[in-house]
């Protein structure tokens, strides 16, 4: 996946976590969000860029 796709998926997971009807759904979407953030940070680090992603959020 390219960075744009990962950023879009991260944002969608963030919104889904915020709007989740149950704690389980919130937890699942937050897990996806953290996974996307970690992948973004890794890709940015590998390319020498500084990552603005906070993988400890939410």
Description:
The chain is mainly alpha-helical. The chain is 71% helix and 0% strand. It has helices at 3-19, 23-46. The model has no long low-confidence stretch (mean pLDDT 89).
How would you concisely characterize the structure shown here?
The protein is an all-alpha fold and 58 residues long. Helices cover 71% and strands 0% of the residues.
Keywords:
2 helices, 71% helix, mainly alpha, 58 residues
| Number of E strands | 0
- Shape descriptor reads elongated
Order of helix and strand elements from N to C terminus: HH
Which structural class fits the helix and strand makeup? mainly alpha
Average pLDDT rating: 89
Rg is: 12 Å
Largest sheet: none
Helix content: over 70%
The low-confidence parts are none
Number of helices: 2
The share of residues in extended strands comes to under 5%
Give the CA-CA distance, first to last residue. Answer: 23 Å
Walk me through the topology:
Elements: H1 3-19, H2 23-46
Helix pairs in contact: 1-2
């Amino acid at each position: 996946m390219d960075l744009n796709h990962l950023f879009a998926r991260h944002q969608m997971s963030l919104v889904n976590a915020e709007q989740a009807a149950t704690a389980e759904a919130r937890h699942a979407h937050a897990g996806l969000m953290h996974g996307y953030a970690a992948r973004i940070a890794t890709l940015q680090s590998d390319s020498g860029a500084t990552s603005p992603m906070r993988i400890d959020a939410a």
